[in-house]
């Protein structure tokens, strides 16, 4: 068997002789002793008995990177090709491949890998090692597998320049590109950490990235969360000792002090080279890379996260690109976010979050998820949680509160039709702001939540955009849209773009700003409101004022919101995480109905965001105009953004307009915009009428099927009263879990 153990002479020295030797060395050569100790300690504290295992395609730089990492850690280095395979076979790898052929080579290579026994070493695998399952299981037992992820085009250029001809599997009729793509499935199966390696990144830089990645992997303490209302200077030792991680904030939803969770050390930043390495990637691949950096593997391992992402964005989306970008006119591009099962951008988070939630929650407790919706969230969250495995449905249930008379007929029909055995919709005789405020108050009512836990063994959780996990998938599609413009040759990487988003609860806008912080060159975020334009007033004047304001029902109901929850996270950022100030501002809003930003903070805000609003009349006019000139139908929310973009953009760079929903969800308003005189009140009839227009995009594939299932069906309706809502919650828990 092939053995390499880290040489550890100190283990062979007795304690007394060690003390004597150390004392002599310290006295005679203190600097030398310090250097030796520093080298020994850094190697041992990072590796211990574990190995760092470098994996990736041929040409990824595993051998060179491994040597540099080994030098930095002062530990043994094993190159599987040179030190194991060629030594074992007594011939070169290319000769062995030619001698035994592809199938037999993989088997012989795997057997050789099974003989390797090492501790505290850096091991560079061959490009084909991951294709042998038994060999990889063996080598992974005592190691951290680091995937050197290099773009396929870069690998092909490297191999071509080196004239390499020993690629396992290369044969007539099978291209090098095909082999590299085929192997990715095996790399994804085995890695613990991914390191992005661009085309021109020096091996020394890659080695440092490997070490940083291993340190991150071993220390989840670095990625904790705090509340937007936490006072850093006044935190007690008990609060500091009770650290919260990703899995905690996913299940808890809202902080106990009423604030929202944010990562204590901020979001990860990608280099320009790392972003450019994702230009050729698919949407799913981009999502995996971005979310791996935002979710620590101690919370969700990379392999499990990949499985969840592929489940979320696979067959559930009708477009293979998931979030395609389409040229509209001039410098305007539409980011189509409506190809999911319920036809809105909410599907991006809510096809993913239920699986994250199910993985993170403890098995010893049942969970009831509370959701408030102004329209699109309802059907999306019901659909997402209904797709969980049956065993998860038994311990996870959901209740969706929506304004009974404040959503479109089709949205309401969707929410009713999407009810399942573990998911229900409840109409509330009020507006969205009441529903959202009620949920926040329920979460902070420790008497009620404690009673549910003790009496029924059930905890409450949130799936609204106040839940941190809801924001992460939205960062992905903003980043992906930019990369698609680069891929299509519209811009080169580094060129700025503006983003215009119809905005109500500020989550989508915040996600775009987060994408900017992570390295996507977004110049301005444009906030588009309807006649409920409290956000526009705030961004322009710095005064958030709800006094005397009443919610106005509009043709764009998803942004009929006056209290924008995620604004709190943004203000926490621009106040340099001043939880005391954030608490003061939002307490004042709650108690007095208004607050005002300091002049310097308003200046910071206006560097990032500009805002405008659009009337219903202008919204419908925009829908008619765009259809007349392009044959494309905008939904009412996208039309709001189009009107505001037309008014505020300076046309010096491309502008990406978030198309947040499919127009068929708002058929009455669309038919009115298209100037149809007779509008049937039946939602199904409205969709059939719209389909006769042969417009772009076609009628949404999922809406017709959903509306055919149950018609209007049944749902519960309750008064706008906290005690009534809490009674509903208790009854639902009794019926489902007891």
From TrEMBL:
Source species, domain of life: Eukaryota
Cofactor: pyridoxal 5'-phosphate
Location of the Threonine synthase N-terminal domain: 238-313
Keywords: Amino-acid biosynthesis, Pyridoxal phosphate
Modified residue annotations for N6-(pyridoxal phosphate)lysine: 346
Gene Ontology cellular component terms for the protein in this record: cytoplasm
GO biological process, one term: amino acid biosynthetic process
Associated pathway: Amino-acid biosynthesis
Keyword Repeat part of the UniProt annotation: no
One MF annotation (Gene Ontology) recorded for this entry: pyridoxal phosphate binding
DNA-binding in keyword set: no
Descriptive protein name: THNS1 protein
Gene source species: Leucopsar rothschildi
């Amino acid at each position: 068997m092939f053995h390499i153990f880290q040489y550890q002479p100190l283990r062979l020295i007795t304690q007394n002789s060690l003390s004597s030797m150390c004392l002599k060395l310290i006295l005679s050569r203190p600097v030398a002793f310090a250097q030796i100790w520093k080298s020994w300690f850094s190697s041992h504290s990072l590796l211990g008995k574990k190995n760092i295992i470098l994996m990736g395609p041929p040409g990824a730089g595993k051998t060179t990177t491994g040597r540099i990492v080994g030098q930095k850690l002062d530990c043994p280095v094993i190159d599987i090709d040179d030190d194991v395979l060629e030594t074992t076979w007594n011939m070169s790898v290319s000769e062995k491949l030619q001698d035994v052929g592809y199938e037999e080579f993989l088997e012989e290579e795997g057997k050789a890998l099974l003989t390797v026994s090492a501790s505290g070493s850096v091991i560079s695998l061959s490009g084909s090692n991951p294709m042998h399952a038994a060999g990889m299981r063996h080598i992974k037992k005592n190691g951290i597998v680091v995937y050197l992820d290099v773009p396929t085009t870069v690998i092909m250029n490297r191999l071509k320049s080196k004239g390499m001809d020993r690629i396992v599997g290369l044969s007539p009729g099978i291209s090098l590109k095909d082999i590299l793509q085929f192997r990715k499935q095996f790399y994804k199966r085995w890695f613990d950490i991914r390191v992005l390696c661009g085309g021109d990144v020096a091996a020394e830089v890659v080695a440092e990235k490997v070490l940083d990645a291993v340190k991150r992997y071993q220390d989840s303490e670095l990625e904790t969360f705090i509340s937007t209302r936490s006072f850093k200077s006044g935190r007690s030792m008990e609060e500091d000792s009770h650290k919260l991680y990703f899995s905690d904030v996913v299940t808890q939803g809202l902080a106990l002090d009423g604030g929202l969770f944010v990562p204590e050390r901020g979001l990860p930043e990608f280099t320009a080279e790392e972003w450019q390495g994702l230009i050729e990637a698919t949407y799913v691949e981009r999502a995996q890379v971005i979310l791996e950096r935002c979710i620590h593997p101690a919370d969700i391992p990379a392999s499990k996260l990949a499985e969840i992402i592929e489940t979320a964005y696979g067959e559930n989306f009708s477009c293979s690109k998931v979030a395609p970008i389409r040229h509209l006119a001039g410098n305007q591009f539409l980011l189509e976010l409506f190809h999911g099962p319920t036809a809105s951008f909410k599907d991006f988070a809510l096809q993913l979050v239920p699986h994250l939630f199910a993985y993170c929650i403890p098995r010893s407790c049942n969970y009831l998820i509370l959701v408030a919706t102004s329209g699109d969230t309802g059907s999306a969250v019901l659909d997402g949680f209904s797709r969980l495995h049956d065993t998860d449905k038994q311990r996870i249930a959901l209740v969706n509160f929506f304004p009974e008379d404040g959503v479109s007929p089709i949205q309401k029909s969707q929410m009713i039709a999407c009810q399942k055995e573990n998911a229900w919709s409840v109409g509330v005789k009020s507006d969205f702001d009441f529903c959202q405020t009620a949920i926040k108050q329920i979460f902070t009512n420790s008497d009620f939540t404690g009673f549910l836990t003790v009496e029924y063994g059930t905890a409450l959780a949130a799936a609204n955009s106040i839940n941190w996990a809801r924001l992460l998938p939205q960062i992905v599609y903003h980043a992906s849209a930019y990369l698609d413009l680069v891929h299509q040759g519209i811009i080169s990487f580094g060129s700025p773009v503006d983003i215009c988003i119809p905005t109500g609860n500020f989550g989508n806008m915040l996600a775009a700003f987060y994408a900017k912080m992570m390295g996507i060159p977004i110049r301005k975020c444009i906030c588009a409101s309807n006649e409920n334009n409290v956000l526009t007033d705030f961004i322009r004047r710095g005064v958030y004022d709800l006094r005397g304001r009443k919610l106005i029902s509009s043709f764009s109901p998803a942004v009929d919101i006056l209290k924008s929850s995620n604004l709190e996270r943004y203000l926490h950022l621009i106040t340099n995480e001043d939880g005391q100030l954030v608490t003061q501002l939002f307490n004042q809003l709650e108690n007095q109905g208004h607050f005002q930003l300091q002049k310097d903070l308003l200046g910071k805000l206006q560097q990032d965001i500009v805002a405008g609003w659009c009337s219903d009349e202008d919204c419908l006019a925009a829908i008619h105009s765009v259809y007349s000139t392009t044959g494309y139908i905008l939904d009412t929310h996208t039309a709001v953004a189009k009107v505001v973009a037309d008014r505020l953009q300076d046309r010096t760079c491309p502008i990406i307009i978030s198309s947040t929903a499919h127009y068929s969800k708002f058929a009455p308003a669309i038919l009115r915009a298209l100037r149809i005189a007779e509008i049937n009140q039946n939602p199904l009839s409205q969709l059939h009428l719209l389909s006769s227009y042969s417009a772009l995009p076609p009628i949404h594939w999922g809406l017709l099927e959903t509306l055919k299932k149950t018609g209007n069906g049944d749902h519960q309706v309750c008064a706008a009263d906290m005690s009534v809502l809490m009674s509903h919650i208790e009854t639902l828990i009794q019926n489902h879990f007891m």
